[in-house]
Design a protein that fits this description.
469 residues; globular; 25 helices; mainly alpha; single chain
């Protein structure tokens, strides 16, 4: 089967590392020996905790003759999948390192799992190196995993090229492969190619047989072409619709400024009996918050209160709604306390919103308590949390604390730099503002209108118009 797609001109070249290097680890990451030699690997198919995964990896003994090579590889594949499910990527890398040291010849099942592991943790180069090393061991799962790896890492062109390579190598795509390559077309640049692939999907019959393919198509039309009419046609023709499908359509309507359509769809969903699902509730809470022209969260609160169960997503959605609403920061903090009393653990998005609320309050005591908590949880170096901390301390005049929050970030992006520039401007510190602006330019990230507006506004107030940056 041959397929010719018209790709945009001057595409980025596919980087192909020539030599794969085994991952390196520091001494404190080494696995501790496990005393039991009779570990039961039959329990690896469920959801394992980090401790269980560590224990299982420690129990692997490749030098033992108690199990065959096939059994050892099966156990490794199951462990790698457990690492992916639990997002315990470091343990997956440790297992890979142990496999390399063992000298075992890995089969396609283990190698495919390794591609998926590095795909999920954002290390597409290692995933590509493993894929290239497979040569004759590549099967349809290998190709699908590599296409998905590129799609997961915003490398749409590479995903499409790999899809074409797969066809040229005589592999016929399945539903997983179609889902991955369609996701690569969920943007304006490659939406036209997605329409061609859509035609192939219709002819092969995968459209009617898989929900994931349908969801990917909905996203392609909604995000790639802003064509909700076509997205609706896909939705209506889908043989099966689950909670994810309904929620996706409701969310895309809300994001594209069609709250009426979103509400109509929700009313239709009521008849299916799925509307009580917590994921749907979260989407509705978020939708009402974003669509309220006056900043009111009244409808969001009604949906929230009617939900029988709450998780971290629903709590974060309603808290964020109150933070975004004018003058409702205290209610956001009350909800956060209710969340803690309900034994729901906040995540980094929750802390980011609550810290924004703290920045608007005259008393910084609660915000400082939250800062101590996020440090204990290891969340202070995440951008969204760090940016909220910078903003909170800057607005209270504690620039030294703001600087410390900026310095410990894993990655200083445009938002981080702009927040810091604005912080110095609000503190009437022209030297600090222009120095931070210069640091931003040196990074090569680029400057947006917000950063320039903050700098010019501050220069006018401070009286530094004419200063060269």
């Amino acid at each position: 089967m041959t397929l010719s797609l018209s790709l945009p001109s001057s595409p980025a070249k596919l980087v192909r590392p020539s030599v794969y290097k085994a991952p390196t680890y520091s001494s404190h990451q080494k696995l501790q020996p496990f005393s039991s030699k009779n570990y039961n690997f039959e329990h690896l198919t469920g959801n394992l905790s980090v401790q269980q995964i560590h224990k299982a990896i420690s129990a692997l003994d490749f030098a033992s003759h108690q199990s065959t090579l096939h059994e050892q590889l099966v156990n490794c594949s199951l462990l790698l999948k457990a690492c992916i499910r639990s997002r315990s990527f470091e343990h997956g890398k440790l297992l890979h390192h142990k496999l390399i040291e063992s000298g075992l010849e890995l089969d396609s099942v283990v190698l495919n799992s390794l591609i998926s592991l590095y795909s999920k943790c954002g290390d597409w180069e290692k995933g590509l190196s493993i894929f290239q090393s497979m040569v004759n061991k590549r099967d349809l799962v290998s190709w699908s995993a590599m296409i998905s790896c590129f799609a997961n890492n915003n490398m749409e062109f590479e995903a499409l090229v790999t899809f074409l390579d797969m066809l040229e190598n005589g592999h016929y795509p399945n539903e997983y492969c179609f889902t991955a390559v369609i996701r690569s077309c969920s943007n304006a640049k490659y939406a036209s190619i997605g329409h061609i692939i859509f035609g192939i999907v219709m002819k092969t019959g995968y459209f009617d047989s898989d929900v994931c393919v349908g969801c990917a198509l909905i996203d392609m039309f909604a995000k790639g072409s802003y064509d909700m009419d076509s997205a609706c046609k896909v939705f209506e023709k889908m043989a099966q619709k689950n909670v994810v499908t309904w929620t996706l359509m409701i969310t895309r309507f809300a994001q594209l400024g069609c709250p009426g359509n979103a509400i109509d769809l929700f009313l239709s969903m009521l008849l299916t009996g799925l509307a009580s699902d917590v994921c749907v509730g979260c989407s509705l809470v978020d939708m009402y918050t974003k669509c309220a022209a006056d900043g009111s969260v009244e409808n969001s609160r009604k949906v929230f209160n009617r939900m029988p169960n709450h998780n971290v997503m629903s709590w974060t959605a309603i808290i964020t709604g109150y933070v975004q609403g004018s003058g409702q920061d205290k209610e956001a903090l009350r909800l956060f306390c209710d969340m803690l009393q309900g034994h729901v653990a906040p995540n980094h998005f929750t802390f980011s919103s609550v810290l924004k609320a703290c920045a608007n309050l005259p008393d910084l005591h609660f915000g400082e308590q939250l800062h101590a908590q996020v440090v204990k949880l290891g969340l202070s170096s995440i951008n969204c949390v760090g940016n909220s901390l910078i903003n909170m301390y800057a607005r209270s005049g504690k620039m030294e604390c703001a600087r410390k929050s900026f310095d410990i970030l894993f990655e200083n992006n445009l938002v981080s730099h702009s927040t810091f520039v604005d912080a110095y401007v609000n503190d009437l510190n022209s030297e600090g503002a222009f120095e931070s602006f210069g640091n931003l330019e040196d990074t090569g990230i680029g400057v947006n209108s917000f950063t320039f507006a903050s700098l010019l506004s501050g220069a006018a107030c401070i009286g530094t118009i004419g200063v060269e940056t």
